[in-house]
Design brief:
mainly alpha
Length: 77
């Protein structure tokens, strides 16, 4: 019995390995933790400006002590 039909060329093996690496990279990116994003909905809900909870008056980024309390309280004042 000739096993030559089951042998794969280096190009086929490299393509398969490349496909596996690409799939693994996509999976890692998909499940990687991301930083939570501030939303204008929180400002509307609390009837406060973004700067009430964030150091940056435009919102996002580091929080003020009030913002930390808001987050720890389940986003409720």
């Amino acid at each position: 019995m000739d096993n030559s039909s089951t042998k794969h060329s280096p190009a086929v093996l490299a393509a398969a390995l490349g496909g596996f690496a690409a799939a693994a990279l996509i999976a890692v990116i998909a499940i990687a933790p991301r930083e939570a994003a501030a939303t204008p909905a929180y400002a509307a809900q609390a009837k406060k400006a973004c700067g009430y909870c964030h150091v940056n008056p435009a919102g996002g980024g580091a929080r003020t002590p009030a913002g930390d309390k808001f987050q720890q309280n389940g986003h409720k004042l």
